[in-house]
Design a protein that fits this description.
The complex is a heterodimer of chains A (132) and B (68).
Chain A (H helix, E strand, L loop, with lengths): L2 H24 L3 H30 L7 H32 L7 H26 L1
Helix pairs in contact in A: 1-2, 3-4
Chain B lengths: L1 E2 L1 H7 L4 H8 L3 H8 L7 H10 L4 H4 E2 L2 H4 L1
Antiparallel strand pairs in B: 1-2
Helix pairs in contact in B: 2-3
The chains are: A mainly alpha (132), B mainly alpha (68).
Chain lengths: 132, 68
């Protein structure tokens, strides 16, 4: 995917998140709306900081996207996959045996697991970037 | 994998940053290589050997565990 397309998709995603956030606040779901807008602002700010660091390294002639970064990302992804499958298996087993019948909003539930996946991935990425 | 990267770099009077720029990787990668925490790809190993005018076998030492 070329840079321009990637940038456009990022901007569209941030715009959608912001619009959804504003709409949720208007609908009375203030917490969720503020969360969406905060996520959009946080991701944009984080990306800007990362881009400036990348430009700084490239200006020095250093390559910030080298093979070690790919190696670490692959290791983190594999570890995340194994951890999440194990966690879900334990969750399902324990829930099936001991858990009460509960009704949950499936979207919230999926959002919860998505957050777990992201946190676990970044945790492993940080760990492998320190040890490799 | 053990290596003589640091020794050869210091012999040439180069910094880690200079080596990183010359072989097209980040300084962090050179640091990890020198500490033996990361094994390079064959392409990177070749570039490093060429930079230090050496062979891959002289630069990277395959230990007994790696050989098995």
């Amino acid at each position: 995917m070329i840079d321009k397309t990637r940038k456009t998709m990022f901007r569209i995603t941030i715009t959608i998140l912001t619009i959804l956030g504003i709409w949720q606040i208007y609908q009375g779901e203030t917490g969720f709306g503020v969360g969406l807008i905060s996520a959009a602002v946080g991701v944009s700010a984080g990306k800007k900081i990362r881009q400036s660091k990348i430009r700084e390294l490239q200006a020095k002639g250093l390559n910030p996207f080298d093979e070690r970064v790919s190696f670490i990302a692959n290791k983190a992804a594999m570890a995340t996959w194994k951890t999440i499958v194990l966690l879900m298996a334990v969750f399902i087993l324990l829930g099936s045996v001991f858990g009460p019948q509960i009704s949950v909003n499936p979207y919230n539930f999926l959002g919860f697991w998505l957050a777990i996946v992201v946190i676990v991935y970044y945790g492993y990425y940080y760990y492998y970037s320190r040890t490799c | 994998m053990e290596n003589r990267l640091r020794e050869m770099r210091e012999d040439k009077g180069m910094t880690q940053e200079e080596v990183a720029i010359r072989v097209g990787v980040s300084r962090q990668t050179i640091i990890s290589l020198e500490k033996g925490r990361y094994n390079p790809s064959i392409l990177l190993a070749y570039r490093l050997a060429r930079l230090f005018e050496s062979s891959i076998e002289e630069l990277f030492l395959l230990d007994k565990k790696g050989a098995e």
